[in-house]
From TrEMBL:
Its biological purpose: Catalyzes the dehydration of L-rhamnonate to 2-keto-3-deoxy-L-rhamnonate (KDR).
Binding site for substrate: 26, 52, 342
Catalyses which reaction(s): L-rhamnonate = 2-dehydro-3-deoxy-L-rhamnonate + H2O
Protein name: L-rhamnonate dehydratase
Cofactors demanded by this protein: Mg(2+)
Organism of this sequence: Azospirillum humicireducens
Entry EC no(s): 4.2.1.90
A GO MF term: L-rhamnonate dehydratase activity
Family: Belongs to the mandelate racemase/muconate lactonizing enzyme family. RhamD subfamily.
Pfam families: MR_MLE_C, MR_MLE_N
Enzyme class: lyase
Gene that encodes the chain: rhmD
NCBIfam families linked: PRK15440.1 (NF011968)
PROSITE patterns in UniProt: MR_MLE_1 (PS00908)
Amino acid sequence: MSAFTNTPTIRQVRAYTVRGGGADYHDQSGGHWIDDHIATPMSKYPEYRQSRQTFGLNVLGTLVVEVEASDGTVGFAVTTGGEIGAWIVEKHLARFVEGRRATDIEKMWDQMFNGTLFYGRKGIVLNAISGVDLALWDLLGKLRGEPVYHLLGGPVRNELQFYATGARPDLAKQMGFIGGKLPLHHGPAEGEEGLRRNIALLADMRERVGDDFWLMYDCWMSLDVNYATRLAQAAHNLGLKWIEEALPPDDYWGYAELRRNVPKGMMVTTGEHEATRWGFRMLLEMGCCDIVQPDVGWCGGITELIKISALADAHNVLVVPHGSSVYSYHFVVTRHNSPFAEFLMMAPKADTVVPMFNPLLLDEPVPVNGRLKVPDRPGFGVRLNPDCALSRPHTH
Ligand SMILES: C[C@H](O)[C@H](O)[C@@H](O)[C@@H](O)C(=O)O
Ligand SMILES: [Mg+2]
């Protein structure tokens, strides 16, 4: 009898939403560093300048996807997507997954992507596809009794090392991280005074951390080429290691120009709001960046990230996924061109290490002294916190 005959099939796909932190990590209560006057493409409107939540950065909420196999095993994953994502999962994507062999992930991905191409391609549809894909990899690991990183070819290093994203790189250095990425607070609409404040903050942090600690700026799509060039030039003698996501994701031409403009030795990075191998092919072939930063919960999941990473490797470009907890750790540990990872400091003052998707996942690992050995529990090795109320709004 062929081994195929006893491979479990997918009995049901279920999608839920959750509010308050979790995978929609911008969905925090007040007073959190992650919503404190951070520059965005909306900063040109004063009414939307102080808080990203005012223009809806946390409008989606968390999407939880469960895939239940015919033997009762349940794989799950979480990403950003909320009710819209849940609707797409159950009303559209489920038809390409239910009844299929749990091993046929590539074919299910291809049908989910091509079956939604008329309204998807990127954005929320790719978040939803990513959620299903990650849940399928979790399920496969559980069925095989293996951590996902074993299914991806095994670890190329014993542990991961992390830089920390947050308001306090000085504290991150004390916690053992290899670098600190600051959110940029002021964009072009705040003129020369804003640029001066951006540089003053960086100078203060450089003073606090010394010369041998990475400092980066995350500009969250808020700048134009001229401002980003001037920021990079002014920050160069402060040892800015990279300037991240300076421009809107579709401005491939602007990124290529910025990369020609920045001082030699400074890196340009982007990609967290890009999706699929085609989007990253554009970034790579147009010479937009030195590091691509796909979010595995937004770019298409593990199945697509494998393709993106191979493309980047061929271009000698590093792949350092946007902070996405265990979903990227299991990938990064298996890739030579992913030498370090991001850890988003989700404590409101960025002064302690808390799980990134807090409070949604149980057993979610966190870096200790800036390092982490990826647990070898089956799948992604985490469980849903039963205290987090899941809702399933679209079942009627
Ligand atoms: C800190 C940044 O403004 C974003 O909130 C962050 O999610 C992302 O850009 C990152 O690279 O971590
Ligand atoms: Mg970023």
